[in-house]
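Quick start: read one record
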Amino acid sequence: MGEVFKDCGEIKDIRMPLNEDQSHNRGFCHVEFADAASVDKAMLLVGTEVDGRLIRIDFSKSRRSNGGGGRGGFGGG
């Protein structure tokens, strides 16, 4: 999944949850970027086809205890 977002900017983390038997991904991932400018670039990918599915972006708030995050992360599917 990193290849899809590599031109957007610095990626801090990518998480791809697996199904219950851990054999396939669940069809979505969480991508955390280092800054809001990278998120803005990633937004331009909405509707791009990846593995037969269109990218959709939803923003999420950080779970970090320091309250950081802002526009730095999103989940897509």
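The longest helix spans residues 36-43.
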